[in-house]
UniProtKB/TrEMBL annotation:
One of its GO terms (cellular component) is cytosolic large ribosomal subunit. One of its GO terms (biological process) is translation. Part of the 50S ribosomal subunit. Forms a cluster with proteins L14 and L19. One of the primary rRNA binding proteins, it binds directly near the 3'-end of the 23S rRNA, where it nucleates assembly of the 50S subunit. This is Large ribosomal subunit protein uL3. The lineage of its organism: Bacteria, Pseudomonadati, Bacteroidota, Cytophagia, Cytophagales. InterPro entries: Ribosomal_uL3 (IPR000597), Ribosomal_uL3_bac/org-type (IPR019927), Ribosomal_uL3_CS (IPR019926), Transl_B-barrel_sf (IPR009000). The gene is rplC. GO terms for molecular function: rRNA binding; structural constituent of ribosome. It comes from Nitritalea halalkaliphila LW7.
Amino acid sequence: MSGIIGKKVGMTSIFSADGRNVACTLIEAGPCVVTQVKNVETDGYNAVQLGYGERKEKNTPKPLIGHFKKAGTTPKQKVVEFRDFRVEFEGQVALGKTVAAGEVFVEGDFVDAIGTSKGKGFQGVVKRHGFGGVGGQTHGQHNRQRHPGSIGACSWPSRVFKGMRMAGRTGGSRVKVLNLRILKVYPEKNLILVSGSVPGPKNSFVILEK
C-alpha cells in the first residue's frame, strides 16, 4: 500500500544516537480494513480503499452499511482511497483484509502526513498572515495597532485584487507535511513515531503516505 489511516495520539521527544533531542509525534496507525479494491478493468485505475475506526450502525447511512458488509466488516469512521499502490502489493490486497502499520512502514522510511489543522476562528491579519501591525507605520496606517493598512489603489484598478491577504477564518483546512522520518515502529501496538509535527489536534485523523 502507499499509505495508511491513523489517529494522532500526541507529541513527545526522544534522543537520537548523536545526542540530539528530536521532537516527534506519536500516531496510532491502523489496523485498517480493505473495504474496496479498484482495478483498471472496472474502474479505470488501480486503487485500494481503507477503513479505520469504529462507527455505530444506527448513525451510518444504509448504502454505506451495505458497502461495509460486502467487505465483511463493521461500519468505519474514516474511509480513504489510496491510488496507484506499489507493484509489490499487487495481489496481496483483498476485500476484508486487515492492514497493520508494521506491514506498510519500517523505521527510516519517509512519509507525508495529511491532516486537518486546528481551527482558530476569525482572525486578523497579524495572526493570520504575520503582518507587523503598526510598527512600520506604512501602507496607510499609523494609529491602529493590528489593522491591515491600505488594500488597493484609487481610480485604477478601482477594486481589490483577488488573493489580497486580509482577515478571515483561520485553520480548519487540509494540510500536508512532507518528508517526515519514521523513527520507531511498534507493530504490536500499531504505533508509529515520526519526526516533527503533524497537523491537527489530539485524536484527529491523520493520513500517512509514502
